[in-house]
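Q: Sequence in, structure out?
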Amino acid sequence: MTARMTNPAMILPEAMKGVGSFLNAISTGGVPDETLELVNLRASQINGCSPCVHGHTAKLRETGVSEQKIAAVAAWRHAPFFSEAELAALKLTETLTRLADRSDEAVPDELWAEVAEHFDEKGLAALVLNIALINSFNRINAAVQEPAGTTW
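A: Exactly. Output:
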């Protein structure tokens, strides 16, 4: 399988500057890298983004996350491998990734309060930006039909 086209950020390289700025900002929020990778994997699973599922699974493995934990991301609600902070981040990820599935508040106050118990304002900012960014990557890859195993 080949992509329909080269990644749009490579065709319009000014976009990569924005991506780099986003990633740099996210890294200053104090959210553990493992949590961000779990968030990236879960959003990518929901969106069916095979290159992102592949890439974030590989990154989690490289950093020493157990196969049990990686495999349980798709069913995180019923798995004992996640910290309370990770569970809150995964819940926020699903909520923000599935916005179209909601008919009430996009992010209910109860959920925001739960996430805020584990992350300060900078951490919350990093999580929200990270979730927005991975959803953007997922949509770009879906549009161009980027295959799993691709590196940028």
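The mean pLDDT is 95.
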